[in-house]
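Ticket #4471: structure output looks truncated?

Reporter: J.K.
Steps to reproduce: submitted the chain below (354 residues) through the standard prediction queue, then opened the result file.
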Amino acid sequence: MKTIVHKFLVTALFLIAVATSQKVFANAAQPGVWNAGGTVFTMLYPEDSLTFKKVQMVEEKIYIQLYKGYAVVKGTYLFRNTTKDKLNFKMGYPINGIYYGGDIELNEVVLDSLSSFKVKAKNQWLSLLPESHPELNNDNSSAVPSDDNWMVWQMNFAPEESQTVEVYFVVNTNNAKVRKGYNTESHNAFIYLLESGSVWKNPIEKGSFYVQLMDGLTTENINGISQGFGFRYNETHKLYAGAKTNFSPTPKDNLVVTYYEHNEHFVFEKALLQTENLFSKIDEMSQSALETLTYTDVQIGDPYKVESTFWGAFPGLLTLFVVFAPFIIGFIAVVIIIWAIFKWRRIRRKNKRM
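Returned output as attached by the reporter:
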């Protein structure tokens, strides 16, 4: 009997140790896309905050060309001064910053490659000014990304004036990870954070979004594209087209694309050597009559989808074991004790007869 009790206590102590070790497994990373290439386009200065809701982003057209390892982007924005006042303010774009967007699924964007960033307004290229803003760093309540260093440019609006602003840039998409629970996959990922448009006067009346597959990519290489844009596909031009109308951007409006696979030998700097050629290609794309093309329905998948693996499921299985094992072992222990008592009584009776 002492041996049985001893084994039962050892088993109980083992279960307590396993349960305690669950603290190691309790902190699964937030599901979503981490370390993606992408963009956020916003006003910068707190002193210009009164201007934020006076300028309306009336329309935006976003052109994205996906390559293996990077993406080229052109954004065309129509802004309108909704007041009878002159407005003078600065817009900005962070250098090598990190922006945490999204809702239930994280949208973590790494903003880089400002060496290839260009902007123009009224068909004139604007001068970019490097500035440091450490006060914005690590401010989780801020509507702008956390980073010390920015490229900024001056914007001037006459009363009730409308202006078109165009931006060009290249981003590294090769280092993204898609997480769900303890399962992780390495993909290329691009995120356009529409939620950053909430700083402007809403609503955005019209948004057009075009995603073109380059570098031999096909629909088979697309892991998933965000729902809510009504994307359709043109096979001839390898082009997805989607749109939104009269919307006030929230995290659910972010455009997320996960595609292809991580290439450990990819060198982003080599892609930047052909920036001007890449910008010429996306200019050609944006100047085409894309709205007149014929598009068909296509499966767009889920950009947050991750295949389950044994090791990804192991912490969950271990949790179930910790929850149910005491009952199972307790039941087994009771059976063993009853059997031992029964066996002991039989031996005792046998000894009495002798």
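Triage note (M.O.): checked the attachment and the full token line is present. The chain has two domains: 2-27+309-353, 32-292.
Status: closed, working as intended.
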